Amino acid sequence: MSGFEIDGHAGIDSPIHRWDPRAKIASILILIFSVVMVESISVALLGLALSVAVLLASRLPLRDVARRVRWPVIFLLPIFFILPFTGGGERTVAISTVDLSFDGIILGSLILTRGVAAVILAYPLFATSPFNITVQAMRGLKMPDVTAQIFLFTYRYLFLLREEMMSIEKSLASKSFAKKTDLRTARVIGTALGMLFVRSYERSERIYRAMVSRGYEGTLPSTVKFEMKRADWAKSFAVAGAALMLQIIDFAATQGMII
Amino acid sequence: MNGLLRGDGTVKILGRKVKEDNLPWVRSRVGMVFQDPDDQLFMPNLREDVAFGPLNLGRSGPEMERDVSWALEAVGLEDLEGKSPHHLSFGQKKRAALATVLSMRPEILVLDEPTSNLDPKSKRAVVSLIRELCDSGTTIITATHDVNIVTLMADEILLLDKRVVGYGPAREILERREVLDSLGLEVPILVDLFHSLRGCCGHHFHKTPITKDEAVEGLKKILG
User: Fold this and answer.
1) Are A109 and A80 in contact (CB under 8 A)?
2) Selected residue of A132, A155, A213, A216 to mutate for chain B interface (largest B Cβ count, 10 A)
3) What ipTM goes with this model?
4) Contact assignment for A215 to B2 by CB distance below 8 Å
5) Domains, chain B, ranges and CATH?
6) For residue B77, which of B111, B112, B36, B37 has the smallest C-alpha distance?
7) Cβ–Cβ of B45/A203 closer than 8 Å?
8) Residue ranges of the domains in chain A?
9) What tens digit of pLDDT does each residue of A116-162 get?
């Protein structure tokens, strides 16, 4: 399975996969917003636990999710390591010549936990339905048609773009081109990317002609029909309720009502 | 041909001049299959792609479903209807591209190099499909450089080199060896063979064989 293919496990049977995609997107988005808005580290950890619970319910292969989560986490890690040294505050611990800020450690952990929880939730959100169904569901949630078309075509042609880039790379390699950190490499790569851009531009014109010749007048027709069942409502209330609970507990924790 | 490109002169489809205000009508009658199937297959899965045209024509429900299923069956891809285009082989993509237009049930089908880059088996499948469609009453216009498939499916040939160089029944055009050569085209293998035989055996054919059956008959005559 290629790394671009987010919906490779859309065929699994799980409560999240069976969920009406519109309700799933709306509910999980609410949960994501709720998790990233919490101020208390202990509530953020609770949010992380909820994210993992949703992920486990989706039965997505954990190894695959871990592989994908890795990159966003690598982006978050610097914050986690830098804030303890720059966080300031009154509570500090002196280690050798540097002061470790207790507030910085807490803030770094909070940002990392919220980030990881949100990234984990993105997988049950996007990987449990075929991508076209996800986009149709977003249209059902009043996302503008043009945006939906951009999403669909981007997803469709991303694979082609990668194939074209790979064929350009193979062609460079077969002419004994080796990447180095010099101006010539930059120039060659720049030319290759420019070539890719020109090819994509020309292809987009041909695609548009193919669409127009099949009666396209600006809107994308859809055959997908969604229907909310009782179980869909139940799952939605459970997840949205959990999001609300997180906010209530967080409010109580930040006001000092609970520890 | 269906109003995609503008130029001088006029094009008439089924007796009507192509104009801005009748383009939807023209496009519902003339189906165009582009050379690169990746340009034609833009939806996330095959069934949605095949349904794109009929839905734009305002068809829906069982009528649309029937057209989509028929087109997928016609090209032999009914088992792959849920697949994404990037999961199909090139030959399957070529046939899928044809299905996306067939589902609109056009009266005229315009194909741009339908057999280019295909393996022999896929090429045969596409040619026999074109032949079947032709026999069932669809007018087919094919642009191709592959002269050997022309003998399998064309009734008439229009030779183009920026302008019309020749137009007439397939046999008549394929026999004009010097014209084909001057355009950088191959002479069909059977025509080439029988031209050579004519020179060495002194046999005279009223008509140069262009199909396999005609060639067999011709060889029988030569061998007595």
Assistant:
1) yes
2) A213
3) 0.77
4) no
5) 12-144 (3.40.50.300)
6) B37
7) no
8) 15-138+228-254, 143-212
9) 999 999 999 999 998 888 998 998 898 998 999 999 888 888 888 88
